[in-house]
Amino acid sequence: MIDTKPDEIKQILKEQQTYFATQQTKNISFRLEQLKKLKDGVKKHEQDIVKALALDLNKSELEAYSTEIGILYEEINFTMKRLRNWAKPRKVSTALTHTGSRGYVIHEPYGAVLIIAPWNYPFQLALSPLVGAIAAGNTAVIKPSELTPNVSSLIKKILQEQYTSAYIATVEGGVAASQALLELPFDYIFFTGSVPVGKVVMEAAAKHLTPVTLELGGKSPTIVDEQVNIKLAAKRIVFGKFTNAGQTCIAPDYLLVQKKVKQELIDAMKEAINEFYGDNPLESSRYSKIVNDRHYSRLTRYLNDGRILFGGTRDDGTHRIAPTLLDQVDPNSPVMTEEIFGPIFPVMEYDTLDEAIEFVNSRPKPLALYLFTESKETEAEVTNRISFGGGCINDTLMHIATPYLPFGGVGESGMGSYHGKYSFETFSHAKSVLKQTTRFDFSFRYPSAKNGLKLVKRLLK
Ligand code: NAD
After folding, report:
1. Which domains does the chain possess?
2. What's the whole-model pTM score?
3. Digit-coded pLDDT (tens) for 211-244
4. For residues 239 and 312, what is the distance between their CA atoms, to the nearest angstrom?
5. 38, 280, 448 from 235: Cα distances, Å
6. Which residues' Cβ are closer than 6 Å to ligand 1?
7. Which of 142, 143, 196 is nearest to 174 (CA)?
């Protein structure tokens, strides 16, 4: 893929700044119209999107629709229905010290925003933040991932058909294009990707004091307690782990299972894998491939970090690795210290819940956490004592798919959140305005006031 040239990138930002200055992106009817255009563009190219995702990642049509296209429609519909309400200036209460005045908050757009996307859900993760950016009244530049070139060029085509690049533009390319973008004074940066690149983004943003949202990754644990519906847990864990062949930021990374139910859970997971992907997942049209050589060889090395309980087969030609369960892993081995981001699932057992909680807490704060239990006490212990971005009780992945919950990380797994109203707020600055009365004037605050200090002390005690 050819990197967009730095001069061209500079020109795009300049044009977007000029466009933003015309004020038209702030008009609510305009924003709604642009959201509708986004939906129309995606609808028009639905089959092309499915094809591009199959070419880049061998995604099945069901996965393409449920995790990339459908989820975007849901985000657009949800936002369009509520935008007028969200965008209204919000009145706030008045403090006693401010009697006579009124306060309100205006959500104003930042200006020209930059959205950098990864390759694993290359369509949705580029365009879902865009919904928030448009809803909040910004212009936007999208930098899709270079590792999924078919989706990248399709995004460019769809956006070009719907918008002038002075409003919404796509910059294609890899690290060089991304770095050229990061040198510029955007008004907001929304980055989805890995932890190391997240640090590069934040450092670059610091030069211009540009605010950032960082949607990063890491190792998301799945804890399975002894009081559990094993069959259902197994199905939902296998679903979350092997969707997109494990290349999901919130995929269960490793399993911590109470030792009494370990064998039963492993047997049930094997059954679920067979049910979902058949006897030979390497041939299944329902099973994704690994995105490229580098990630494929990185993942194959993990196969040596434990005893293979199930799976472990692979096809170098098609970059596929069968759903694999790994036992007897060393907590200090690469498969347990690096984000796996593939279809390999280390299984570790624990005796007491404390042990499991301490294990998770001894590591960076995860993006997601999944707990399978019927016990309310266990649920309370885990949700209170472990810090994580978001997660599910008795399910996996599904918390990302509802526009009512904020989605984002904490600590090393990221900062900020989005989806639904949270996206609108992420891409808006909350501007505070105090409107003072001119009908009267409290003079005790002025340096010349008699008894000023006494009054201030009485009011602010
Ligand atoms: P990545 O960090 O390698 O790349 C992300 C984007 O940054 C790409 O567009 C890429 O071109 C650009 N980039 C890469 N190196 C760069 C550099 N040195 N300087 C500037 N830009 C650079 O991530 P990836 O491999 O595309 O995606 C996988 C990672 O993303 C995983 O860690 C995963 O957990 C995370 N992820 C997080 C979420 C989330 O919502 N939190 C979603 C999907 C993926």
Report:
1. 6-216+411-433 (3.40.605.10), 221-408 (3.40.309.10)
2. 0.95
3. 999 999 999 999 999 999 999 999 999 999 999 9
4. 18
5. 35, 18, 74
6. 116-120, 125, 143, 145-146, 174-175, 178-179, 182, 192-194, 197, 200, 215-217, 249, 339, 341, 367, 409, 414
7. 143
